[in-house]
From TrEMBL:
Putative transcription activator involved in regulating light control of development. The keyword Transmembrane does not apply. Belongs to the FHY3/FAR1 family. This is Protein FAR1-RELATED SEQUENCE. It holds the Pfam family MULE. Residues 590-626 form the SWIM-type domain. One of its GO terms (molecular function) is zinc ion binding. It comes from Cardamine amara subsp. amara.
Amino acid sequence: MERNESVDGDVQASEYLENEEICERDDPLSDGECTLRIGEALVCSSEHEIDVGFCQNQQGKIEEEATGEFDEQSGLLVERKEFDAPAVGMEFESYDDAYNYYNCYATEVGFRVRVKNSWFKRRSKEKYGAVLCCSSQGFKRINDVNRVRKETRTGCPAMIRMRQVDSKRWRVLEVTLDHNHLLGSKLYKSVRRIGTGTKRKSVSSPVSDAKTIKLYRAHVMDSGNNVNPNSTMKKQFQNSAGSPDLLNLKRGDSAAIYNYFCRMQLTNPNFFYLMDVNDEGQLRNVFWADAFSKVSCCFFGDVIFIDNSYITGKFEIPLVTFTGVNHHGQTTLLSCGLLAGETMESYHWLLKVWLSLMKCSPQTIVTNRCKPLEAAISQVFPRSHHRFSLTHIMKKIPEKLGGLHNYDGVRKAFTKAVYETLKVVEFETAWGFMVHNFGVIDNEWLRSLYEERVKWAPVYLKDTFFAGIAAASPGETLNPFFERYIHKQTPLKEFLDKYELALQKKHKEETLSDIESLTLNTMELKTKCSFETQLSRIFTRNMFKKFQVEVEEMYSCFSTTQLHVDGPFVIFLVKERIQVESNRREIRDFEVLYNRSVGEVRCICSCFNFCGYLCRHALCVLNFNGIEEIPLRYILPRWRKDYIRVHLADNGLTGFVDGTDRVQWFDQLYKNALQVVEEGAVSLDHYKVAMQALQQSLDKVHSLEDKQD
């Protein structure tokens, strides 16, 4: 077991150092003087070493040599300096250097430092982790409440968390800079009130040697020669409010972005982010993707939805998300971006980065209607099918047509033209009736929709594969991934907190769905149809439930007859009773083309391309022709329970591993561990064996660390 040490008392830097010499504190400038020279290249492609001069009790330093001003309220002569606050990614040669740096920073800001936690290795007792916090962190224990000493703790959140890394340096992993109490006024209690013009000499101290701390910046970004390494972090994140080609950052956004990205990259070797800056080092666009998103893209990157509704809707956050559909039919996040604006240049940069990272050219891309994004997609993904989101268009109807005096009639006619037409001629007729009958032929929005109808109207999209993203039926919607986590006024800092919560919830849903799929049994069958039994053994539970509806609705199809025969090709007519408004039922005809020689079947409703499984009409035709099992070509691998495991085997991900590529190590370990998780969730016995194997593997990894001590 690793040992955790907690220290409740206030700890000064001098108490921690090995010489254990305690300095007198007659005034704030007489000792503990810190001079920091921190380099400015914080975002770079190679490790950057920075010297930080930490000079204690410099002999002969007098007041005139400092630039300061007298604080009348506190009676202190306060020196005004520009100190870089602790940041995620800083590295130090030793724990002593890290502690002294933070204590020096604390002295200048005006608070005391306390060691909250320490972690030690089991055998060598070597310290490998620590949390340093403000002395006002936490509260008194209940047993201490009756003590005479006044309560000084306020539950202050300020802290840094650091850990020893492979290089034996100490790296800062987490930083909280905010305090919930006044700073500086109570730090020095024995300072005499000094009148203006009074000169003071520093009090000599036994410790007079200057100590130099080596401060390093970790790898925080792979610039790919796109970022000027000489530009400062300050420039990269300077506020660009009001500038159309720069990212609009509010106060505190820069620190929030930087700390979050560095923390994710340091704790997750496969986390990637890239920043687009101009020649002046000002931030324009940002892209990021985590390890889970990368893996998901390998499996489900054939059909993606690029959602820019947060930008077009004028949200506080200029967010763009890339999402796909996993093997349960659930939305899965593939990556995110922050853009300076709705320009073709910004979208082009974002798509190029996505393509270079994911190494995937989607078969189908669904977006909201946006000319700059459309132009960028045509350049970056010229072979992909670009289609518009029908959900987005239908949601725009009240906004675009709500002012019409005959709005209800137009809305119903529009809906009927979109959802109830099966042939192009039917759609054209229904559209013509709407615009002429209600006098909206000159409506600009309707005119623009009609001009682009081949990109959004379902009747034109039957040859495009959507994997359920199309939402081509009434009641189906394509919602934003962060719909319940972001509103128009959500600030960026709050979003970054909610981002992880949203991902955790989605990952939990997927894990639970995996478990449910492995335990699916015949008790959930609702018919005696062989098609239902067949796919209950293959599909994930969620996708099987969707297909099960089609099997049940086969009984609403009461007639299957041949219309035309041309050699092996036969056109069947399937009649179905469909429920419409006011619980009325009407009969509709669906034509199904069947190729007897190769077993191909295609319905005019094109459910297979829209949803990824056969419809009730096609199933009726197969049943009519004596087919008892669905042909394999209509059982998509992406809906299988074992899809991820099979996909790994097919792509040879258990072969050669580069001995220097940590990212590849992570990929291999993560993807192969998924197989253990899937098999271990089958039953309680499987679970126990899997847990034992994982624990044994972890113990062996820890034993290697102990041998290296």
